[in-house]
């Protein structure tokens, strides 16, 4: 089996939903981002409440408690992602891909205390690294995971020289490859484009420099840009 | 470079996804990666530490890019399905060191992108201007997080070291003092060695992931820039088209099978609707399918066909998942058998009998405790349903005792004359008191008055009003009102009012003689 970090979730209708669990690198940075926000909130509260004497100290401790335990919960159940996760395009979901709600979010965040052991989330990091779905302890108990939030597919844009009606039958996988070729041809060098187009010549029956524009025409036909 | 036997799934990814893929790669090939790392770095570490306990580990750290070349060697071969073991890598390692080793451990040592850049240097073998040109192309993207990956890995090295220190503090007995700060600052030989070992462990655990992640990011850039996924897709399309004959043959066979199946089942279903055919014995063709053996054959064949279809994608979705669950020590059954063997029957039945009785008793105790609890908390329960608790200090008023409250002794024999005397003397308080006491006594002779000690004048009046009617009721109302005004508001009543009350009293209560 080939190594891959994308997982397929099969729905009851037999449709595969592709999700990519987010790994240790991006989650570490997202955590640091959230940590900085939390520190700023607590510091602001501490400055504002420092004038209120002993009661102020009590209130500061309450603020610290709330921010430590409920900052992620509130953001995860309302938006599905904390600001840190949002900045790295991550979101929290249940194992079946559904958005997380109070129960899951609360459990995974309460068990952050277990992940923290013995210091600085060492257990959580090791657990995440060894888990096939990049889950830390809290994720295992809450039945949740953190995945990349895929950007919505944009309408493909690519330029092609000649408009020509190409009548050719391709299967689905090949269609995808041809469209990807047309879309990404900007980032490919001309020589590389030629190489790739030449591979397809047994199917398209076109060789030489013509082959590139021919393939792009096919792609344009496929996405309805004739 | 043959893209067909790549052992990773080729897909354009974001840089973070590429690092995650690298972690998967490192996990898959951890034996050869860690085996190589241990075999190469452990001797160097031991030598470095024995020379100088502090600067030795710094030198060990400084030379890290050299050991990392071996990891990259393994990864780059493994990705293309070449089975390189730790032993092969150790043999190849001295050869890998020749290229640009000096640059690696001097000015490129502190480059935050060294893991990524190592691939260009080692695998593509570029030098000087060519190398920097190539690097600028590979780094020219908005999604270049290679430096962040280096920082994250460094952070995790630190976390491993600190985590291990914390772990030690966890297992230190509570009586022993453990000062973190002293432990960090101490320069004793043992502490230094412990830190060095932790550092070694941290590098051992992180380095494979760091290099694999960087290498995956490098591969990802090349996939993006060279369209590897497109190449693979195109090649597959061509190979599908170039083998049309076999495909056609198989599909033809499949279609024929289907048709055969359909016609046979059709004949089978229609059979009962043609009873006349049974009488014509000569027409044997129709009866081919009614042969029970033949029918069985069809069923068998169709089952086999169904099985064959279910065995190929997308229906062969069987997979084996292993998870571990606690099912006990496994010798509980044995213990049970042993215990039943060792006890004679009469004893075990006796034990069961005693146990049953004990259980009954326990339920009894439990039930009575529950009842007791309910009884003790009856007032709370009442309060729960918003009913006022019954007044506990509702002592009945003894009127004979009450009568003695006048003048500290008994009531006068001739009340009306006493009233007149008091009215003349303007002793209104005493007069009122006498009237109140005597009238109450009179009323209580005819009717029981449920008066209590804790009642106020108004409450008394309410009770009295319920018991009597007519003039007496009106009189009592007037009397108590006046009394309240006098006793509590200190309003001295008019003489006429007092005279009127005295007259009324004489008419209403005088016919009887007061108690002695």
UniProtKB/TrEMBL annotation, chain A:
One of its GO terms (cellular component) is membrane. Keywords: Membrane, Transmembrane, Transmembrane helix. InterPro entries: RDD (IPR010432). It is found in: Membrane. The chain crosses the membrane at residues 30-49, 56-75. Residues 22-142 form the RDD domain. It is a multi-pass membrane protein. Pfam families: RDD (PF06271). This is RDD domain-containing protein. It comes from Aliiglaciecola lipolytica E3.
């Amino acid at each position: 089996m080939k190594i891959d970090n994308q997982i397929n979730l099969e729905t009851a209708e037999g449709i595969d939903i592709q999700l990519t669990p987010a790994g240790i690198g991006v989650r570490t940075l997202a955590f640091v981002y959230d940590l900085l926000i939390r520190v700023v909130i607590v510091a602001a509260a501490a400055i504002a409440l420092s004038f209120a004497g002993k009661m102020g100290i009590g209130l500061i401790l309450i603020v610290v408690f709330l921010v430590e335990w409920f900052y992620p919960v509130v953001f995860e159940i309302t938006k599905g992602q904390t600001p840190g996760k949002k900045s790295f395009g991550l979101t929290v979901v249940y194992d079946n891909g559904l958005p997380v709600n109070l129960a899951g979010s609360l459990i995974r965040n309460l068990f952050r205390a277990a992940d923290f052991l013995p210091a600085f989330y060492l257990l959580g990091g090791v657990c995440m690294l060894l888990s096939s779905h990049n889950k830390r302890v809290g994720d295992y108990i809450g039945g949740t995971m953190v995945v990349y939030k895929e950007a919505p597919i944009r309408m493909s844009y690519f330029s092609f020289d000649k408009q020509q009606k190409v009548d050719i039958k391709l299967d689905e996988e090949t269609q995808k490859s041809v469209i990807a070729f047309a879309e990404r041809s900007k980032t490919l060098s001309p020589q590389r484009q030629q190489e790739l187009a030449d591979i397809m010549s047994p199917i398209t029956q076109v060789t030489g420099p013509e082959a590139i524009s021919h393939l792009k025409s096919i792609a344009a036909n496929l996405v309805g840009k004739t | 470079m043959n893209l067909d036997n790549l052992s990773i799934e080729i897909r354009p990814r974001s840089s973070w996804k590429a690092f995650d893929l690298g972690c998967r790669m490192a996990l898959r090939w951890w034996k050869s990666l860690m085996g190589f790392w241990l075999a190469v770095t452990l001797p160097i570490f031991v030598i470095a530490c024995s020379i100088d306990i502090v600067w030795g580990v710094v030198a060990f750290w400084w030379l890290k890019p050299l050991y990392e070349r071996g990891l990259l060697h393994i990864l780059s071969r493994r990705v293309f399905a070449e089975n390189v073991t730790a032993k092969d890598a150790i043999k190849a390692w001295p050869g890998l060191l020749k290229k640009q080793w000096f640059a690696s451990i001097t000015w490129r040592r502190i480059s935050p992108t060294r893991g990524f850049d190592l691939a260009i240097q080692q695998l593509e073998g570029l030098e000087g201007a060519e190398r920097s040109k190539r690097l600028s192309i590979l780094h020219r993207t908005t999604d270049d997080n290679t430096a962040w990956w280096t920082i994250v890995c460094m952070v995790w090295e630190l976390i491993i070291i600190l985590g291990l220190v914390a772990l030690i503090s966890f297992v230190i007995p509570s009586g022993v003092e453990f000062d973190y700060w002293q432990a960090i600052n101490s320069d004793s030989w043992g502490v230094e060695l412990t830190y060095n070992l932790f550092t070694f462990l941290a590098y051992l655990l992180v380095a494979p992931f760091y290099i694999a992640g960087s290498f995956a990011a490098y591969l990802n850039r090349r996939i993006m820039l060279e369209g590897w996924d497109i190449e693979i897709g195109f090649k597959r399309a061509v190979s599908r088209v170039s083998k049309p004959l076999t495909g056609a043959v198989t599909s033809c066979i499949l279609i024929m099978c289907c048709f055969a199946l359909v016609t046979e089942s059709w004949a089978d279903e229609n059979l009962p609707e043609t009873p006349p055919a049974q009488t014509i014995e000569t027409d044997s063709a129709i009866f081919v399918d009614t042969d029970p053996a033949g029918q069985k054959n069809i069923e068998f064949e169709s089952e086999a066909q169904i099985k064959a279809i279910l065995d190929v994608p997308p229906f062969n979705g069987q997979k084996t998942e292993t998870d571990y669950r606690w099912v006990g020590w496994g010798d509980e059954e044995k213990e049970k058998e042993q215990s039943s063997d060792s006890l004679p029957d009469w004893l075990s039945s006796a034990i069961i009998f005693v146990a049953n009785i004990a259980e009954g008793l326990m339920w009894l105790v439990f039930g009575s405790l529950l009842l007791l609890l309910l009884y003790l908390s009856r007032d709370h329960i009442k309060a729960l349903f918003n009913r006022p608790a019954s007044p506990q200090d509702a002592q009945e008023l003894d009127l004979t005792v009450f009568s003695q409250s006048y003048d500290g002794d008994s009531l006068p024999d001739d009340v009306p004359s006493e009233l007149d005397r008091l009215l003349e003397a303007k002793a209104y308080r005493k007069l009122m008191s006498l009237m109140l006491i005597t009238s109450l006594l009179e009323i209580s002779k005819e009717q029981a008055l449920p008066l209590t000690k804790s009642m106020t004048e108004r409450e008394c009046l309410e009770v009295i009003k319920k018991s009597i009617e007519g003039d007496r009721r009106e009189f009592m109302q007037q009397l108590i009102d006046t009394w309240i005004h006098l006793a509590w508001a200190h309003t001295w009543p008019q003489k006429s009012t007092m005279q009127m009350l005295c007259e009324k009293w004489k008419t209403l209560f005088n016919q009887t003689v007061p108690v002695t």
